Every structure is written in C-alpha cells, then in structure tokens.
From TrEMBL:
Keyword tRNA-binding applies: no
Residues annotated as transmembrane: 20-37, 43-64, 76-95, 160-185, 206-229, 235-264, 271-294, 306-335
The organism's place on the tree of life at top rank: Bacteria
GO cellular component, one term: membrane
Organism: Mucilaginibacter aquatilis
Protein name: AI-2E family transporter
Keyword terms, alphabetized: Membrane, Transmembrane, Transmembrane helix
Stated family: Belongs to the autoinducer-2 exporter (AI-2E) (TC 2.A.86) family.
Membrane topology: Multi-pass membrane protein
InterPro entries: AI-2E-like (IPR002549)
GO BP of this protein: transmembrane transport
Length: 357
C-alpha cells in the first residue's frame, strides 16, 4: 500500500514537471513568434518604403510621358536617372554646408538648452517649473536625447540602400509583382483585386505628391525667412522643418523646438518672430496642400491618425511614425472594399427583396 502511494506521488510530480515545461515551452514559442512578427513587420515597412519610392518614380514618369509624349520606357529612365542626378547636384552644392551646420547645431544644442533654462529661471513661474523638472540625471538625459535626435535627424532610414534598390526593382517591372499578388486570388476575385491595387496606388500617389510639395514649400519658405533674419544654421533648421512636415500633428511642433531655442540665444523677440514664422508657414502650406491630399486620400479622422502614429511609433520608432498615414490609408481602403461595400450591397439587396415581397 505504501509503495502504491509513493508511485502515485512520483507520478503526480512527473506530471507537474511536464506541465511546467510545457508552459515554459509555450511562453518561449510565443516570445519567438512575437519577435519574428516584429521583424516581419519592420520588413513590411521597408517594402512599403520601397513601394513609395516606386510610386514616386512612376508618378514622375507619368508626368514626363504626358508632357513630352515619350515612350514609357524613356519616361521611366528619365524619371529615375533625373532624380538621382538632381540629388547628386544638390549634395554637390549644399552637402558640405549642410554637414557643417548639422555639426554646429549638435554642438551648440547643450549651450542653447542651458541658455533657455537660465532665461526661464528668471521668471517666478519658470523657476518653479525648473525646480519641479530639474535634476542632474534628467537634465543630462534631456540634453543627450535632444543632441542625439538632431545629430541623426537626416539618418532616419538606416536601410536606405535596400529601400532604394527595392524601389528601383519595383519600378523596372511592376507588373511582375502585381500579377503575383493577383495569382494568389480566386478567379472571380481578380478584378476586385486589381481595382483595390489601383485604388491604393492612386491614394499613395496623392499622399506622396502632397507630402513632397509641402516639404519643398516649407523648406524654401523657412530658408528665405531665416536667412533674411541672419539666423544661425538657417538651412538645417528649414530642412528639419520640411522633413518633419511628413509627420502630421506632431512634426510641426517638433520642428519648432530647435529653431525657437536657438533664437532665444539672440533675444526673446527673435524667438517670438521665429515661432510666428513656423506657424504662418505651416498654416499657408497646410491650406494649399491639404486640399490636394484630401482629393486623393480617403478622409481619415484626425483621432484615428494620431492613434495610428502612436501605435506605429511604439512598434517601429521613427519609421513607423512616418509611414503611419499611408499605412492607415491602405488599411482603410482594404476595409472599405473588402468589408464595408459588400455589407452595404448585402443590406441593400435585402431591402430590395423585402420591398418586392
């Protein structure tokens, strides 16, 4: 009888150990799946970047083809080669100046923050704010974070070569990839799939066109304004504002920080004027460019845009924030075409049936 109880206890211990190891194995498998999914998601974002590059090349090729009546092949060659030639010329004339100004901004940023803190401490309310947030560790961390951000603001896309090559490959023969996607669909869904692909392409072209126009206009307008004011590192500040214009809602506010902080080292009035320049420029560009974007993009609720930016930023950092809007547009188009419209058609059919009966 004692032997039977011992065997029973041993069997229960073995069963418990097996359950523990099974639980550990399941948790480890879930962690591996999550890590793989995150890597796959980052890869998906790189593919989306390559797709946007291809959309840009094809959009420019369409414009060249319409204006010059050249063949599609030559229009695409001019589009790709002309873009790289324009980039090379821009870097040739402005690359050294931009690099010097980026270095100056990175080196002067700690002094600028200290100067801002000194001016803020003179005000009673500002002094209380500094006392609340001040601390050696938090202060140093803020400086290091800001300095790192502005010194790497032109290197957000770390895998830019891969993205460019993907964009070129997608541009050379896009029908291969489009037909490959359509092959995965049933025969009766191929027309719908082609329609969805074309609608997504049109939406991405509209977003890209509006974004590029906004970036160029903001950069040019602020460069002229800051140069006229003789503000230090004017070109870099304008470029930062133009690049951050890609990010709705948060980009405009983030772009103002370095310019206003730098202007505070000159005078308070200069900082106020610089802040007004940012606001006026962004308002003018927003009123001109936003209607162009809205004509091509579906109407996205602002709250949904902010939520997608926060979610994408948490998952993939800066690249996720930049691509949040086009990715949200793609998701909304897919939901509209694959779920909303069929549900409406089904409901309409039921209503017509009831009326007939």
């Amino acid at each position: 009888m004692i032997k039977t109880k011992t065997e029973h206890t041993t069997q229960k211990e073995l069963t418990y150990i097996q359950k523990v190891w099974q639980t550990v194995a399941i948790i480890a498998l879930l962690v591996i799946i999550i890590l793989i999914a995150r890597v796959a998601f980052n890869l998906l974002l790189m593919v989306l970047c390559g797709t946007l590059v291809s959309v840009y090349f094809h959009g420019l090729g369409d414009l060249i083809e319409r204006k010059t009546r050249l063949s599609r092949k030559w229009a695409m060659i001019i589009s790709v080669c002309g873009t790289f030639a324009l980039l090379a010329i821009s870097l040739w004339f402005m690359g050294t100046k931009i690099a010097i100004q980026v270095s100056q901004l990175s080196e002067s940023l700690p002094h600028t923050i200290n100067n801002f803190q000194a001016k803020l401490s003179k005000d009673p309310l500002g002094h209380k704010v500094l006392e609340y947030f001040n601390g050696r560790n938090s202060n140093q961390k803020m400086m290091d974070t800001a300095q790192s951000f502005f010194s790497t603001s032109f290197g957000v896309l770390g895998n830019i070569y891969i993205i460019l090559f993907l964009g070129i490959f997608f541009s050379v023969n896009p029908s291969i990839y489009k037909d490959g996607i359509l092959l995965l669909l049933p025969e009766n869904k191929k027309f719908m799939g082609l329609y969805v692909i074309n609608r997504i392409s049109l939406s991405l072209k509209g977003w890209l066109k509006g974004t590029l126009l906004a970036t160029v206009l903001v950069t040019v307008m602020l460069t002229i304004c800051f140069t006229f004011m003789d503000l230090p590192v004017a070109l870099v500040l304008a470029l930062i504002a133009g690049i951050l214009r890609i990010i709705p809602n948060f980009g405009t506010a983030a772009a103002m920080i370095p310019g206003v902080l730098l202007a505070l080292t000159i005078s308070t009035n200069t900082a106020i004027i610089v802040a007004l320049m940012y606001i006026v420029t962004q308002t003018i560009v927003g009123n001109i460019i936003t209607p162009i974007i809205q004509k091509k993009l579906i109407n996205m609720p602002p709250a949904l845009t902010i939520i997608s930016q926060i979610l994408m930023g948490t998952l993939s950092g800066a690249l996720g924030i930049i691509l949040a809007v086009p990715l949200l547009a793609i998701v909304m188009i897919l939901v509209d075409e694959l779920y909303v419209k069929p549900m409406r058609a089904k409901a309409k059919g039921q209503i017509n049936t009831n009326l007939t009966v």
